Amino acid sequence: xxxxxxxFKIGRSGAHxxxxxxxxxxxxxxxxxxxxxxxxxxxxxxxxxxxxTTGKKGDIHSRRLAFAKLRSRDAVKNLFDVVAPAYAERxxxxxxxxxxxxxxxxxxxxxxxxxxxxxxx
Length: 121
Hints:
Elements: H1 14-31, E1 33-37, H2 38-57, H3 60-70, H4 73-86, E2 95-102, E3 109-115
Antiparallel strand pairs: 1-3, 2-3
Helix pairs in contact: 1-2, 1-4, 2-3, 2-4, 3-4
């Protein structure tokens, strides 16, 4: 039974899944957007939004927590210096997912996940 199961398994072991999410979050924070499958994007959204909320605190403990998840100095620096300050006034909803259709080889549903830019300013 799947009662109270909160994450997608994505057909990988736990360590592989955590490494994949860390790599995808690194790319998202550095490039601003990535193209991936829909299920991976939905899981990445949960992972990345928690990291951005942690990044908004800005203290050294938060940096260490983020580094434990991301394992990349460049991504952590970009998260705390560029990404998190941009969302200082926003409470959640930092990412957006656009569906792109189906991949040709295996018909997997593809999408674009990107960091939301503040259009109001």
